[in-house]
Fold this sequence. Notes:
Elements: E1 3-10, H1 22-26, E2 31-35, H2 43-56, E3 59-63, H3 81-101, E4 108-109, H4 113-121, H5 123-136, E5 142-144, H6 149-156, E6 161-166, H7 190-203, E7 205-207, E8 213-215, E9 220-222, H8 230-243, E10 247-248
Parallel strand pairs: 1-2, 1-9, 1-10, 2-3, 3-4, 5-6, 6-9
Antiparallel strand pairs: 7-8
Helix pairs in contact: 3-5, 4-5, 5-6, 7-8
Amino acid sequence: MAGVDFNSDLGESLGLWERGADDAMMQVISSANVACGFHAGDPGVMRETLAKAQRHRVAVGAHPGLPDLLGFGRRRMDVSSRDVRDYVLYQIGALSAFAHALGLRLHHIKPHGALYVMALDDPVVAAAVAEAAAEFDPGLPVYTLAGGALAAAAERLGLRVVPEFFADRPLASDGSVVMFNWRDRIDASPEAIAQRVRSFLTGGSVPADDGTLVAVTAESICVHSDTPNAAEIGPAVRAAIEGSGREVTAELHPAAGAGERR
């Protein structure tokens, strides 16, 4: 049975502020992108999220963002490439320390929010993110969209690129993902999102927001834990994956460990 990874952004609470359907998503995903303290998360949340992932045998990746707690990392910032590189390396290192304490190793890196979008579009930002990942561990896969600047930068450095499909975000007719201000452009009901996943898995394409079919290249499927109804969307997507004859698994990257540290 062919496998497909199912990932979600988790650990995005902060102090007394709780965000995301982490507990529900943890039961259905195969890999978690864990916030590292810049856009969300704090040391206690990081440790707790990793411990939950360990109990559920979910692979853990670093989810670094811009230093923007008030904007949840979704606001573009005018930052130098050196700053981006240091921000990303710092955050990977912080999460890795908690993973090490639990006997885990990181499985991947996936930028968050505005940093994700900037790395898609800007080769300078993309290079900085890829360089930080390579400095930490050249065997660490990078999750991003196929065809973007980050994928190209990571491949130049010999990093494993894992293209992903955002099941709960609309596609424009040119194939680009609508990351922000998307709620009026997609039916985010569990069944509608599950149907998008089935369309991708069985036909390799997904309807854009104008109804045209857009080809999608991906090895991992993402549902955000803070999408409304994520607790219901997650199980519906897992059922759609398995109903399409695929196994939900993070074991796609031989260089990365998904469980206990070896």
